[in-house]
Amino acid sequence: MRIFDAHCDVLYQMWLDPTIEFADSPKLHITYKRLKEIGGKVQCFAIYIPEQVRPESRFEVALEMIDIFYKRVLAPSPLLKFVRTRDDINALKDNEIGAMLTLEGCDAIDNSLIKLSTLIRLGVSSVGLTWNYANFVADGILEERGGGLSTFGKDVVRELNRSYLWTDVSHLSIQGFWDVMELADFPIASHSNSFTICKNRRNLQDEQIYALINKNGMIGINLYPPFLSTRPKITISDMLKHLDYICSLGGEYHVGFGSDFDGFSETAKGMENYSCYEVIIDSLLKHYSENQVSRFLYKNFLEHIPR
What we know:
By secondary structure, this protein is α/β, with parallel strands linked by helices. The protein has twelve helices and nine strands. The two termini are 23 Å apart.
């Protein structure tokens, strides 16, 4: 069964440690080998600029990660193909895997639409507006001020609309989320869960889930344990609760997976790396039809690509 994973931090890990090879490094949750073995069809690779990078260096670090994407991820992986549109993905051969480039947080662009346009020209297909804190675009979910989109932030969303790109609200403040709902043509939450099921600030409240569904958006289930449950021992059943709940709110055609693999070190039992998708598929097929499982794993995100 095909898998579309809307978020991982492989590029960040490879930027931190230049010795890591994407082919089969034991330091990575997602590798070329695992994508081939488990049925990966589309993998989104995020550009994430860590907080410790000085503001004046952040755009350059974004360029370095893009260079890693093309030279150290794509080039040595013959079956991995760069994609950015639905047609690109549909044109993949049966044994080929699509690789999409995304931006996690607009810290890298400062207050410059030129920098944003440059990243888009280099292949970025989805833009997360913030990480957890504030930047020129908006406040993140952990910023105490809780502000929404700035004037510049609204310009960014309009540019994403014009470019037919996803506007990603994962990590965004609550006010910022509602500002995006008013402006964005193609909103998603690439790696966020249900706040009702697990009361972590990074998760989405019911009203936010309803809003994304009504805007024909997508929600990617995140496998990071603190976003799944507050219980000490977390398993795949905890992940299923989030998917079941989002479906109960009307999200059957608006939910998929954004694992967040390689963005964390603490993993849940049975979800230690990309290979867990085999177990996830088996678990889903016990509760849902094959067509529904195919939607959750692949078709829903594919059908919501803006172009």
